[in-house]
Automatic annotation (TrEMBL):
Highest taxon in the source lineage: Eukaryota
Species this chain originates from: Xenopus laevis (African clawed frog)
Protein name (database record): procollagen-proline 3-dioxygenase
A biological process term (GO) from this entry: collagen metabolic process
Start and end residues of each Fe2OG dioxygenase domain: 553-667
Gene name linked to the record: p3h1.L
Length: 765
């Protein structure tokens, strides 16, 4: 007896060990292990765990699909149940359900070693996989172990789903520059076969190569129905309680069955959207399945295959029977081929069956919507109107009309509120301007030497010590090396007076020149940092509640033309206001285009004082009465609000060169200077913390350092790694093809309105 028990225990132990060994390891734990390995810098383990997590997730999906399709095909259906339904038939119905459930349980345990509920994962983890985050980690790990082709593929795969990821885009640009990297390395490892074939079809179609486009569109249709079947199978999962506590769910038997099955049908209908969606795109391709047939009918026409053209046109009309252009094309094809022969050509049966099934599901879903209030959003634009119950149609019509009316009323109300807020803000802003100035200047060595009271106005300040003498000299050297004549003034070298020449350079241009090695990169960085320092001083001193954004930044020098200074009476820069058009005769300033009405604060940081003339002046609105005058010198800054309270100008520079950094700011982020954003991105690229590591790797491999900038375009080792290729290079759009004229005007197609028309709108891939 004891021996028997021992044998039995040993048998079950071995059996359990075999089951555990056969059980598919959950991909959530594999992913967590991969993340931990990443933080340890264990790159081989990162690859092992992340690759296995991706593989097991796909295996799990495949096993679910396989089991559900197998059990649907190998257990009894319900079509043979008798019409005179009764208690026995109820039992027969549920017998079939039990048989399928048992089949699924057995199949899943055989294939994955555990019931499906063993592999339930969190929504957060599902989101990470949908965002393709594992590939983000993989691209860094592969890069670290110098498997560049795999790093490129992982990076590209991640970027396709995250095209806004700037760091990954930089990584891909870096990979493109690496020796040995091939174009074929940039591949999407998660590409859907049906979408891949469709994109190739569109590409060939756009290039006016109908024969290969037909092959790819037909293959795309074949793959579409495979993907549709798999997607629908994956909808047969557990009931989603949609946020409320399942403990409170107390529906009876048939209501519970209804709730779950309606949810399954809703999911199946959403496969239309799922299959038409592309990673990284907000919207799916509209009318995706019908568009295959639209392309095909015209492609077959261009290869003179009228039989197939008619078949595809008739199939397209199953979706949109009243499409005028397609009916015209069909009439043309039938006339060319022969009316009698055309009648014997029918729409494709697989798509006909697809539509019948979809319409029946929609009828049930709309019934559930109308009767039980279970929401249903129809993903198709081709759904026949009679599928929707009349009461629901009328309700939806009323809701649309009500929504349109409410939207219009809200729009009108918002306009009124905006006008009131604008008036109120102006009143409040004008009041607080006189109250709020006098805040700290933030930096040691920066001193306020004149305030609004001394300068006889409001919202004015002069500070000294913003930058040092050495920094002034460095920026002057940068100006002489980088500035271009007329820069910032549309190339006009003497924009304000013929008696002076103007030279300037923007922050972004200086950084680009530094990246190219044409000017010292540190000087360009100093220029960038100084402008931000001035912004912070202005923002703090005037006690602004909202941040300032750069509207325009310009390092500019004005040089006196020696032979034109005798008897000079003009100004270097005439009196003006920065955000409105000054009418000095009327003592008013008009805030309208072409003035930069969005500018709120201005500042000038001087780099030198070794010139004659060139003093900065504040005036009254008459542009004549000077209220204050400021003598430029190295490190001195004049800051002021940009409105009509601060007309200003610059006296003539009669000898030498006057250089300054001129800055304009806005409180409106919508007017943030584009070049400043580009400069910010360039700074991140040029001065990332990993630049030194990149240089070391370059020296190890080539014996040469990377040029400035390239050393920093690399995968980030931050907590979440990064990637990004330009998906636009892959995208092609469909141009409308001109109508093709009939070659023989005496042919039997004279009664047709015209030759076929390529009616498709552009397909954005």
């Amino acid at each position: 007896m004891a021996l028997s028990l021992l044998f039995t225990g040993t048998f079950f132990f071995l059996l359990s060990a075999e089951v555990l060994e056969a059980r598919l390891e959950p991909y959530d734990s594999l992913y967590d292990n991969g993340v931990q390995a990443y933080h340890r810098g264990d790159w081989h383990s990162v690859i092992l765990f992340m690759e296995k997590a991706l593989r097991n997730r796909e295996l799990l999906r495949r096993h679910h699909i396989s089991c559900r399709l197998h059990c649907a095909n190998h257990t009894g259906g319900f079509s043979d149940l008798p019409l005179n339904w009764g208690p026995v038939q109820d039992l027969t119905f549920f017998q079939r359900l039990l048989e399928r459930a048992e089949c699924l349980k057995r199949c899943e345990e055989e294939k994955i070693g555990a019931p499906s509920d063993f592999y339930i994962t969190s929504q957060e983890l599902q989101l990470e996989f949908n965002k393709r985050s594992p590939y983000n980690y993989l691209q860094v790990a592969y890069f670290k172990i110098h498997k560049i082709d795999k790093a490129v593929a992982a990076a590209y795969t991640f970027y396709i789903a995250n095209p806004e990821h700037m760091e990954m885009r930089q990584n891909l640009e870096y990979y493109k520059m690496m020796e040995g990297v091939k174009e074929s390395d940039f591949r999407d490892l998660e590409a859907k076969p049906h979408m891949h074939e469709f994109r190739l079809g569109v590409s060939y179609y756009t290039d006016e190569e109908p024969a290969p486009s037909i092959a790819h569109f037909e293959k795309a249709l074949e793959e579409y129905f495979v993907a549709d079947l798999e997607c629908r199978s994956m909808c047969e999962g557990a009931y989603d309680y949609d946020g409320y506590n399942y403990m409170d769910y107390n529906s009876d038997l048939f209501q519970s069955i209804t709730d779950h099955y309606v949810q399954v049908m809703n999911c199946r209908q959403s496969c239309v959207t799922e299959l038409a969606s592309q990673p990284g795109r907000d919207k799916p391709i509209e009318d995706f399945l019908p568009s295959h047939l639209n392309y095909l009918q015209f492609a077959y026409y261009n290869t003179n295959n009228y039989t197939k053209a008619i078949e595809c046109a008739k199939t397209f009309l199953l979706f949109f029977p009243n499409d005028e252009v397609m009916n015209q094309n069909l009439a043309y094809y039938a006339a060319v081929l022969g009316e009698e022969e055309a009648k014997l050509i029918f729409a494709r049966e697989d798509i006909n069956a697809y539509i019948r099934r979809s319409v029946l599901e929609k009828e049930l879903l709309y019934f559930a919507y109308d009767t039980f209030g279970i929401p249903f959003v129809d993903p198709d634009s081709w759904t026949p109107e009679n599928v929707i119950p009349k009461r629901l149609r009328e309700k939806q019509k009323m809701e649309r009309e009500t929504a349109a009316r409410i939207t219009e009323e809200i729009g009108n109300l918002m306009k009124e509120i905006e006008n009131l807020v604008e008036v109120k803000n102006k009143e409040t802003f004008d009041l607080t301007r006189t109250i709020h100035e006098g805040g700290p200047v933030l930096f040691d060595g920066v001193n306020v030497v004149m305030n609004s009271k001394i300068l006889n106005g409001s919202q004015r300040v002069v500070t000294d010590g913003v930058i040092s003498e050495e920094q002034c000299r460095e920026l002057l050297r940068l100006t002489n090396a980088a500035a271009s004549a007329g820069d910032g003034y549309r190339g006009t070298t003497s924009p304000h007076t013929p008696n002076e020449k103007f030279y300037g350079v923007t922050v972004y241009k200086a950084l680009k020149l530094g990246q190219e090695g044409k000017v010292p990169l540190n000087s360009a960085l100093l220029y960038y940092n100084v402008t931000d320092k001035v912004r912070r001083v202005v923002e703090s001193y005037f006690r602004l509640d909202s941040p300032l954004y750069f509207s325009y930044s310009h390092l500019v020098c004005r040089t006196a033309v020696e032979e034109k200074q005798d008897g000079r009476k003009d100004l270097s820069h005439p009196v003006h206001v920065d955000n409105c058009i000054l009418n000095a005769e009327a003592n008013m300033c008009i805030k309208e285009h072409p003035a930069y009405t969005f500018r709120d604060y201005s500042a000038i940081l001087y780099l030198n004082g070794d010139f004659e003339g060139g003093n900065f002046v504040f005036t009254e609105l008459d542009a004549k009465t000077i209220t204050a005058e400021v003598r430029p010198q190295c490190g001195r800054m004049v800051g002021f609000s940009s409105g009509e309270e601060n007309p200003h100008g610059v006296n003539a520079v009669t000898k030498g060169q006057r250089c300054a950094v001129a800055l304009w700011f806005t409180l409106d982020p919508r007017h943030n200077e584009r070049e400043r954003v580009q400069a910010d991105d360039l700074i991140k690229m040029l001065f990332s913390p990993e630049a030194d590591l990149f240089q070391e790797e370059a020296l190890e491999k080539t014996g040469k350092p990377l040029p400035p900038g390239e050393a920093n375009v690399r995968p980030s080792d931050s907590e979440s790694p990064s990637v990004t290729p330009d998906a636009n290079a892959i995208d092609k759009q469909l141009d409308n093809t001109d109508s093709v004229a009939a070659e023989n005007t005496d042919s039997p197609v004279e009664h047709v309105q015209g030759p076929p028309v390529d009616s498709k709108s552009k397909t954005e891939l």
